[in-house]
Design goal:
CATH class of one domain: Alpha Beta
CATH architecture of one domain: 3-Layer(aba) Sandwich
Low-confidence stretches: none
Number of strands: 13
Shape: globular
Mean pLDDT: 92
Radius of gyration: 20 Å
Distance between the termini: 34 Å
Order of helices and strands: EHEEEHEEHEEHEEHEHEHHHEHH
Helix content: 25-40%
Structural class: alpha/beta
Largest sheet: 7 strands, parallel
Strand content: 15-25%
Oligomer: single chain
Length: 326
């Protein structure tokens, strides 16, 4: 059987990809190239230490993989110094593409981000002007360009599939969805400022399905936004958790200025648990800035989402074995 290499495969999405590959028996060997070792050992997956910020050894894998899935990124925002996003995401793209060229690997699936558009209430399509307002978004926009440059150097032989996912949620995501769920489980989640903020989001298992489908279909170049077709709001997310998980939390609508003021004071105290809860102004502001992204091009291509919001939360609950989501 053929083999696959996943750069950045030890993270959240990579872990779910490994499980899906194992369950479907898709590859003889899946190489997990990451600076961090995986949290669990999965049959058929071989871990290889790899720092994509540095040139990648041509002997990285025991055999030449038929496809590269490039997930490697510094992505949590806020959470890192500005230069860390650029060093990992840009140098990583350059080194992964150089490795592909050196090993004559002609098929890459690359995960970018909707952060390349910047926030805004207006709907964004794949043709919208990119106006990233954070280092993560800027570095991803440049990384896309590097991958496209690799592709156009030999369009007749190479294929490139770029996907721009919204907020990905599911077991072990550790982001805002988990924080909201854990706060609701504890009985209190103050809604900051508004309930109609649109949050382009998707369930991790749907994007894994898409990535693996693209990995098995070389040819051409594609670019798709990836998020649920419905306009999911922060209010929908909270109500979804209430309905599916049975949370009965108090969720008052609190003016943004009041929450930001409290977060600023708590942030000055530099208490680790406060930061873990996400009570920092930059993270709270993300809850009131819409990410209004269209996935119509993806849907028109024939892709069918297996999980709507309610189905995804129910599946997440099943994976966690109860109402406590992690």
């Amino acid at each position: 059987m053929s083999s696959l290499v996943i750069f950045g495969g030890s993270g959240f999405v990579g872990r779910h990809l490994q499980r899906m590959i194992r369950d479907q028996g898709l590859y003889g060997t899946t190489y997990i190239a990451d600076i961090r070792p995986p949290r669990e050992k999965i049959d058929g997956c071989e871990y290889i230490p790899c720092d994509v910020r540095k040139p990648i050894d041509g002997g990285l894998c025991a055999e030449t993989p038929e496809c590269i899935v490039n997930l490697a990124a510094v992505h949590t925002s806020p959470g890192h110094l500005s230069h860390e996003y650029f060093e990992t995401n840009i140098l990583g793209a350059r080194n992964v593409c150089a490795y592909a060229a050196a090993k004559n690997i002609n098929h890459i699936v690359f995960t970018s981000s909707i952060s390349v558009y910047g926030p805004g209430e207006d709907e964004k399509t794949e043709d919208s002007v990119q106006m990233p307002n954070i280092p993560y978004g800027s570095s991803k926009a440049i990384a896309e360009y590097i991958h496209r440059e690799w592709y156009i150097r030999d369009e007749a032989k190479r294929s490139l599939h770029i996907v721009r996912p919204g907020v990905i949620f599911g077991q072990t995501e550790g982001g805002n969805f988990t924080r909201i769920a854990n706060a609701l489980e504890k009985g209190f989640f103050p809604l900051p400022g508004r309930t109609d903020t649109i949050k382009a989001c998707l369930y991790v298992k749907d994007i894994c399905r898409y990535i693996l489908d693209r990995a098995k279909k070389p040819g051409g170049c594609s670019l798709y936004n990836f998020c649920l077709p419905d306009k999911i709001t922060i209010g929908d997310v909270v109500n979804g958790f209430r309905k599916v998980l049975g949370y009965r939390a108090f969720t008052p609508l609190v003016p943004l200025w009041a929450i930001n003021s409290a977060a600023t004071v708590l942030g000055m105290l530099n208490v680790p648990i406060v930061r873990k809860m996400g009570m920092v102004p930059d993270r709270i502001v993300k809850l009131v800035r819409s990410t209004n992204i269209s996935s119509q091009k993806l849907v028109s291509s024939g892709f069918v989402f297996k999980f709507g919001l309610s189905e995804a939360l129910a599946d997440w609950k099943k994976d966690c074995g109860g109402k406590h989501l992690y």
